[in-house]
Design goal:
By secondary structure, this protein is an alpha+beta fold. The protein has 3 helices and 2 strands.
Length: about 70
Amino acid sequence: MQRALIVIGLVLLVAGIAWPWLSRLPFGRLPGDFSVERENFSFFFPLATSIVVSIVISVLIWLFRK
């Protein structure tokens, strides 16, 4: 558990430092992300982004367990 928390902290640190470059990636604007905008209502559901992030996290966890 300690190693997992340290790794998560390091990943968050690197993501925070690299945020200017990461914000240019198309996450949140992928095809398959649903966006509904009405007059007094807006709804955004990042389905494709959620699937991509889930796959990446699953692969990382699989790699760390080996």
